[in-house]
Design a protein that fits this description.
21% of the residues lie in helices and 37% in strands. With 312 residues, the chain is α/β, with parallel strands linked by helices. The chain folds into 2 domains: 100 residues, Vaccinia Virus protein VP39 (Rossmann fold); 174 residues, Hnrnp arginine n-methyltransferase1 (Distorted Sandwich), CATH 2.70.160.11. The strands form 3 sheets. Strands 6, 7, 8, 10, 11 and 12 form a 6-stranded antiparallel β-sheet that branches. A 5-stranded parallel β-sheet has the order 3-2-1-4-5, with helices on both faces. Strands 9-13-14-15 form a 4-stranded antiparallel β-sheet, with no helix packed on it. The mean pLDDT is 96.
């Protein structure tokens, strides 16, 4: 069990404050029942209890559930109970008025929150019940700082008469957790585009896809794509991993290109992104970049796939 990971979560004051604000909007003292799914150390469920929830059910399948149980007793939260099981394995869950689930990753769905909440909405939630977060929106923006690509192109400098091009290609067919500044992104991140959005009040597909495009007003070189997300917890309460927003323990993702793409003024670059996530196979992402001239003719295309970055 990696207790240090949970320490980083609890040290994230932006995250903690946002979820506290969301829960305080939802809970009616002595009335609201809550399920904390993927509870970890139990923090969010404990917040709900302290805010006056009538009953809080915490579900956690990992070993950290034992820590949550100790913390529950230590804080004397008599209105909480913990089930050391994944929520999808509960045969007959007691229904609740609100579900809170913070199993978001740097890529938001890598911990299977979509599949988990599809099940929880159908089997745990009372009619007119509330899910926190309410929605997640994903954003993409071209990276214009060379240093992110240059780091991954280190294979070119091995030397000694050796060519490591195949290994370099594998490195580029990968996704990297990075922290971007506004200046690293096209037009200081003002050119970010939304490419995917879902709301958890309905059943959602675990395969996500979307498109975005940008036109060059001047000669511009693109070294990859940056991804981030915004989660609406409840109305007017959100958290975001955008480089323009207050920093959290989450960071942005860097999706490289195979070779830097230089766009001339008047040209357009378009990207298509697709992800597939499941309990059995984890998460895979693919991203394609296509450059077209002012007449709409395709002049370049690159296609990358996370599966190509794994060792055989």
């Amino acid at each position: 069990m990696r207790i240090e990971y949970h320490r980083t979560l609890l040290a994230d004051r932006v995250r903690n404050a946002a979820f506290h604000a969301a829960l305080s909007r939802v809970i009616v003292k002595g009335e609201t029942t809550v399920a904390d799914i993927g509870a970890g150390t139990g923090f969010l469920g404990f917040l709900a209890a302290k805010l006056g929830a009538k009953r809080v059910d915490l579900y956690e399948a990992a070993d950290v559930a034992g820590v949550a149980r100790k913390l529950l007793r230590h804080n004397r939260l008599s209105n909480c109970r913990i089930a050391e099981v994944h929520s999808t394995d509960v045969a007959a869950p007691d229904p609740v008025d609100a579900i809170v689930c913070e199993t978001l990753g740097n890529y938001p769905f890598e911990e299977n929150i979509v599949e988990t909440l599809n099940d929880a909405r159908e089997r745990f939630l009372n009619p007119r019940g509330i899910i926190i977060p309410r929605a997640v929106e994903q954003f993409v923006c071209p990276v214009v700082s060379e240093r992110f690509y240059r780091e991954l192109a280190a294979w070119d400098g091995v030397g000694y008469g050796l060519d490591f091009a195949p290994a370099k290609t594998m490195s580029l067919n990968n996704i990297y957790v990075r922290t971007f500044e506004a200046a690293d992104l096209l037009d200081n991140a003002a050119e970010a585009r939304a490419w995917d959005k879902l709301a958890f009040d309905r059943r959602n597909k675990t395969t996500r896809s979307g498109e975005a495009s940008w036109s060059a007003g001047k000669r511009t070189t693109i070294y990859g794509l940056a991804l981030w997300w915004t989660a609406e917890l409840v109305a007017d309460v959100a958290i975001s991993t955008s480089p323009l927003d207050p920093k959290t323990h989450w960071e942005q993702l860097y999706l490289p290109v195979l070779t830097p793409i230089t766009m001339e003024a008047g040209q357009t670059v378009a990207t298509r992104l697709r992800s597939a996530t499941s309990y059995e196979r984890g998460t895979n992402l693919t991203w394609t970049l296509t450059v077209s001239d002012a007449a709409g003719r395709q002049v370049a295309r690159q296609a990358l796939d996370l599966e190509k970055g794994f060792l055989p």
